[in-house]
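Pasting as-is:
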Amino acid sequence: MTKVELAYFAGIIDGEASVGKWRAGKNRIWQARIVMTHTYRPLGNRLVHAFGGHIHEAGVGPLGRKQRYQWMMSKQPEVRKALRLLIPFLDEKRTRAKQTLKFLDYLQAHPRPIGRFR
């Protein structure tokens, strides 16, 4: 992937995505994710092709306007790789991305996520 493509994706993620950690699943374990809801399916396809993750339909927007899609990355190796590639190009989400990488390092050092990460 070129620097121009990374800068393009970083700009989209900076403005539209959420980067961080959430509790997931029935056991409510902590998980790092990158999530973005959008209305242009080809953009989601490009993100999947570039970084991985998956897309699902997120329903119709307010007032029944456009179909929404959600791109999500939750596999920890994918999230780690994407953030490492994107951090040099991020602005608004750079601090959050670095915190998320620290969280991933914590999870790697402690395979069983327990309690709250601080």
